[in-house]
Amino acid sequence: MATSPSSVTSADGSGVESGDSMGNMSERPAPDGVRERLIQATIRLLADQGPSAIKARTVASAAGLSTMVVYHHFGGIPELTRAVVDYGFKELDDAFSQLPVTEDPITDLAVEALTCRRVARENPHLYDLMFGLSTRATYRPLRDTDVRFSGRSPAFQAAYAHIAEACERLVSSGRVNEQEAEGVAAQLWSYVHGFITLELVETFVGFDDPVRQVMLPMGVNLSVGLGDTRERAQASHEAAVRLYDSITRADKRRATRATRSRKRGR
Fold first, then answer.
1. 186/6 Cα distance (integer angstroms)
2. Which CATH number fits domain 28-75: 1.10.10.60, 3.10.300.10, 1.20.82.10, 6.10.140.1670?
3. How far apart are CA 257 and CA 266, in angstroms?
4. Among 85, 121, 84, 115, CA closest to 98
5. 8 A C-beta contact, residue 110 and residue 217
6. What is the pLDDT of residues 198-249, one digit of tens each?
7. Which whole-number Å values give the CA distances from 243 to 95, 109, 114, in the listed order?
8. Above 50 in pLDDT, residue 36?
């Protein structure tokens, strides 16, 4: 779909460099690490070369393993693909888990939306895979509907639970009309990932700042449509931008300190 960007743009338009280099790997890893190595190799191939690179031979080579190891641990590329999807949603779940919970559920939902965008931009091809946006044969889902990477996936459900919980708080707060929190969560999820999908294919290249000009105003409009006042919805989204930017700045400082610490340890 989209090529992987070299940086992640924050809500204020600033860039934070991202990306991992492939380290040296031993030929005979501990058994417990083989599946993880294959999953990580697949994720790196997606980021660097796109979905056409996801073949048993290329994944095995990138992991420093034999091709038969892929079939032994996963059965084939569709099963490996499902494991990569699960890993992606677990990463999203972890990202949500690290976010602070405030007294304003609309602020929290907007911060979660910005976090979804960051995760998607870090590896757009992985995002495509997670949300079933690719039609390439290497992404072909398993025929058994019980194990397809969909809304029934436990990994997906764990990540989505953060959205659902914030929507429960929103409906209970009285800021929006009385309605089913489940429906609110589905609407918010659809708006966020609709925006992300369109942004990744460069639909918004005519905007200087798609987040401030498209994504956040759409969140305000949806909040108003749900029953909030425009003034409160606007204030909540502005607070979300400030909170998100403070989180990303703190993350960048921690990453810088960790890098310096590793260099000193060499």
1. 31
2. 1.10.10.60
3. 15
4. 115
5. no
6. 999 999 999 999 999 999 999 999 999 999 999 999 999 999 999 999 999 9
7. 15, 12, 11
8. yes
